[in-house]
Amino acid sequence: MSDASNPITALLARWSEGEPEALHALMALAYDDLRAIAHRRLLAAGSGETLATTALVHEAFLRLDGRSGDTWESRAHFYAFASRAMRHIIVDHARSRQAAKRSVDLRLPLEDVEGAVSDAAADVLGVDEALERLASRHPRMGRVVELRFFGGLSVPETAQVLGTSVRTVEREWTRARTYLAEALRA
Protein backbone atom coordinates (compact mmCIF):
# COMPACT_ATOMS: atom_id res chain seq x y z
CA MET A 1 0.00 0.00 0.00
CA SER A 2 1.72 3.19 -1.18
CA ASP A 3 0.73 6.75 -0.52
CA ALA A 4 3.15 8.43 -2.93
CA SER A 5 0.45 10.93 -3.93
CA ASN A 6 0.01 12.08 -0.32
CA PRO A 7 1.40 15.63 0.17
CA ILE A 8 3.24 14.62 3.36
CA THR A 9 4.91 11.71 1.56
CA ALA A 10 5.90 14.03 -1.31
CA LEU A 11 7.41 16.54 1.11
CA LEU A 12 9.28 13.78 2.94
CA ALA A 13 10.74 12.59 -0.37
CA ARG A 14 11.85 16.13 -1.25
CA TRP A 15 13.36 16.59 2.19
CA SER A 16 15.17 13.24 1.98
CA GLU A 17 16.68 14.41 -1.30
CA GLY A 18 18.23 17.40 0.49
CA GLU A 19 15.64 20.14 0.05
CA PRO A 20 15.56 21.90 3.46
CA GLU A 21 12.52 24.02 2.55
CA ALA A 22 10.49 20.81 2.37
CA LEU A 23 10.85 20.35 6.14
CA HIS A 24 9.26 23.75 6.77
CA ALA A 25 6.39 22.90 4.45
CA LEU A 26 6.04 19.51 6.16
CA MET A 27 5.88 21.20 9.55
CA ALA A 28 3.12 23.49 8.34
CA LEU A 29 1.16 20.62 6.82
CA ALA A 30 1.49 18.11 9.68
CA TYR A 31 1.47 20.56 12.60
CA ASP A 32 -2.26 20.41 13.36
CA ASP A 33 -2.32 16.59 13.22
CA LEU A 34 0.68 16.33 15.52
CA ARG A 35 -0.82 18.88 17.93
CA ALA A 36 -4.02 16.83 18.09
CA ILE A 37 -2.02 13.65 18.79
CA ALA A 38 0.09 15.43 21.42
CA HIS A 39 -2.97 17.01 23.02
CA ARG A 40 -4.67 13.63 23.42
CA ARG A 41 -1.54 12.21 25.02
CA LEU A 42 -1.18 15.11 27.45
CA LEU A 43 -4.84 15.78 28.17
CA ALA A 44 -4.88 13.72 31.32
CA ALA A 45 -1.79 15.46 32.70
CA GLY A 46 -3.96 18.47 33.54
CA SER A 47 -2.83 22.06 33.51
CA GLY A 48 -0.14 23.25 35.87
CA GLU A 49 3.53 22.86 35.12
CA THR A 50 3.38 19.82 32.87
CA LEU A 51 4.69 19.40 29.37
CA ALA A 52 2.70 21.57 26.96
CA THR A 53 1.22 20.29 23.70
CA THR A 54 3.12 22.86 21.65
CA ALA A 55 6.39 22.03 23.40
CA LEU A 56 5.87 18.34 22.68
CA VAL A 57 5.22 18.93 18.98
CA HIS A 58 8.18 21.31 18.65
CA GLU A 59 10.51 18.86 20.40
CA ALA A 60 9.33 16.09 18.05
CA PHE A 61 10.11 18.33 15.07
CA LEU A 62 13.56 19.08 16.50
CA ARG A 63 14.23 15.37 16.66
CA LEU A 64 12.96 15.04 13.10
CA ASP A 65 15.26 17.86 11.94
CA GLY A 66 18.23 15.82 13.12
CA ARG A 67 17.20 13.03 10.73
CA SER A 68 17.58 14.97 7.47
CA GLY A 69 19.54 12.24 5.68
CA ASP A 70 16.97 9.53 6.36
CA THR A 71 14.75 8.06 3.69
CA TRP A 72 11.07 8.36 4.50
CA GLU A 73 8.78 5.78 2.96
CA SER A 74 5.38 7.30 3.60
CA ARG A 75 3.13 9.50 5.66
CA ALA A 76 2.59 6.57 8.02
CA HIS A 77 6.36 6.16 8.42
CA PHE A 78 6.58 9.84 9.39
CA TYR A 79 3.80 9.50 11.97
CA ALA A 80 5.43 6.34 13.31
CA PHE A 81 8.64 8.29 13.90
CA ALA A 82 6.68 11.15 15.48
CA SER A 83 4.82 8.75 17.76
CA ARG A 84 8.06 7.20 18.99
CA ALA A 85 9.63 10.62 19.49
CA MET A 86 6.59 11.85 21.45
CA ARG A 87 6.63 8.75 23.61
CA HIS A 88 10.29 9.28 24.50
CA ILE A 89 9.77 12.99 25.15
CA ILE A 90 6.80 12.33 27.44
CA VAL A 91 8.66 9.61 29.34
CA ASP A 92 11.83 11.72 29.64
CA HIS A 93 9.76 14.62 30.94
CA ALA A 94 8.03 12.38 33.48
CA ARG A 95 11.38 11.01 34.65
CA SER A 96 12.83 14.49 35.08
CA ARG A 97 9.75 15.59 37.01
CA GLN A 98 10.02 12.52 39.22
CA ALA A 99 13.73 13.12 39.75
CA ALA A 100 12.97 16.68 40.83
CA LYS A 101 10.61 15.13 43.40
CA ARG A 102 7.75 17.35 42.39
CA SER A 103 4.35 15.88 42.87
CA VAL A 104 2.43 16.01 39.63
CA ASP A 105 -0.19 13.69 38.26
CA LEU A 106 1.10 12.60 34.84
CA ARG A 107 -1.57 10.05 34.04
CA LEU A 108 -2.55 8.69 30.66
CA PRO A 109 -5.93 6.99 30.69
CA LEU A 110 -5.89 3.84 28.62
CA GLU A 111 -9.64 4.07 28.23
CA ASP A 112 -8.96 7.15 26.11
CA VAL A 113 -7.63 4.83 23.42
CA GLU A 114 -10.80 3.61 21.72
CA GLY A 115 -12.19 2.07 24.91
CA ALA A 116 -9.09 -0.05 25.51
CA VAL A 117 -9.73 -0.35 29.22
CA SER A 118 -12.91 0.78 30.92
CA ASP A 119 -11.64 2.10 34.23
CA ALA A 120 -7.88 1.69 34.38
CA ALA A 121 -5.46 4.61 34.34
CA ALA A 122 -1.72 4.51 34.77
CA ASP A 123 1.05 7.03 35.09
CA VAL A 124 3.35 7.65 32.16
CA LEU A 125 6.24 5.76 33.70
CA GLY A 126 4.01 2.80 34.55
CA VAL A 127 2.72 2.66 30.99
CA ASP A 128 6.26 2.95 29.64
CA GLU A 129 7.53 0.18 31.94
CA ALA A 130 4.65 -2.14 31.03
CA LEU A 131 5.14 -1.35 27.34
CA GLU A 132 8.86 -2.13 27.60
CA ARG A 133 8.08 -5.50 29.17
CA LEU A 134 5.53 -6.23 26.46
CA ALA A 135 7.95 -5.18 23.71
CA SER A 136 10.71 -7.38 25.12
CA ARG A 137 8.42 -10.43 24.86
CA HIS A 138 6.43 -9.42 21.78
CA PRO A 139 8.24 -6.67 19.81
CA ARG A 140 5.54 -6.23 17.18
CA MET A 141 2.82 -5.89 19.83
CA GLY A 142 4.92 -3.21 21.51
CA ARG A 143 5.19 -1.30 18.22
CA VAL A 144 1.44 -1.62 17.65
CA VAL A 145 0.75 0.01 21.02
CA GLU A 146 3.35 2.70 20.43
CA LEU A 147 1.95 3.55 17.01
CA ARG A 148 -1.71 3.44 18.04
CA PHE A 149 -1.50 4.89 21.57
CA PHE A 150 1.35 7.39 21.32
CA GLY A 151 1.13 8.11 17.60
CA GLY A 152 -2.60 8.06 17.00
CA LEU A 153 -2.21 5.97 13.85
CA SER A 154 -5.19 4.07 12.53
CA VAL A 155 -5.16 0.29 12.22
CA PRO A 156 -4.49 0.43 8.43
CA GLU A 157 -1.68 2.98 8.91
CA THR A 158 -0.15 0.83 11.65
CA ALA A 159 -0.33 -2.21 9.36
CA GLN A 160 1.40 -0.25 6.61
CA VAL A 161 4.21 0.91 8.90
CA LEU A 162 4.76 -2.61 10.25
CA GLY A 163 4.40 -4.28 6.85
CA THR A 164 1.69 -6.62 8.05
CA SER A 165 -2.02 -7.17 7.58
CA VAL A 166 -4.81 -5.13 9.12
CA ARG A 167 -6.14 -8.28 10.76
CA THR A 168 -2.78 -8.96 12.43
CA VAL A 169 -2.69 -5.43 13.82
CA GLU A 170 -6.26 -5.75 15.12
CA ARG A 171 -5.44 -9.05 16.81
CA GLU A 172 -2.19 -7.78 18.34
CA TRP A 173 -3.85 -4.51 19.42
CA THR A 174 -6.49 -6.51 21.32
CA ARG A 175 -3.90 -8.79 22.93
CA ALA A 176 -1.63 -5.87 23.84
CA ARG A 177 -4.46 -3.89 25.47
CA THR A 178 -5.37 -6.93 27.55
CA TYR A 179 -1.74 -7.45 28.58
CA LEU A 180 -1.28 -3.78 29.51
CA ALA A 181 -4.53 -3.61 31.44
CA GLU A 182 -3.49 -6.65 33.50
CA ALA A 183 0.05 -5.31 33.99
CA LEU A 184 -1.23 -1.92 35.15
CA ARG A 185 -3.72 -3.44 37.58
CA ALA A 186 -0.99 -5.55 39.21
Structural summary, described in words:
This protein is mainly alpha-helical and 186 residues long. The protein is 67% helix and 3% strand. It has helices spanning 7-16, 20-42, 53-65, 75-99, 124-137, 139-150, 155-162, 166-185, and strands at residues 107-109, 121-123. It has a two-stranded antiparallel ribbon. Residues 44-49 and 106-122 have low confidence and may be disordered.
Widest sheet, order of strands:
1-2
Strand content: under 5%
What is the arithmetic mean of pLDDT? Answer: 77
Major beta-sheet overview: 2 strands, antiparallel
Residues in helix, %: 55-70%
- Inertia-based shape: globular
Rounded to an integer in angstroms, the radius of gyration calculated over CA atoms is 17 Å
How far is the N terminus from the C terminus?
Answer: 40 Å
Number of strands: 2
Tell me the series of helices and strands, N- to C-terminal. Answer: HHHHEEHHHH
Number of helices in the DSSP assignment: 8
Stretches with pLDDT under 50, minimum 5 residues: 44-49, 106-122
What's the multimeric state? single chain
Question: Structural class, from helix and strand content?
Answer: mainly alpha
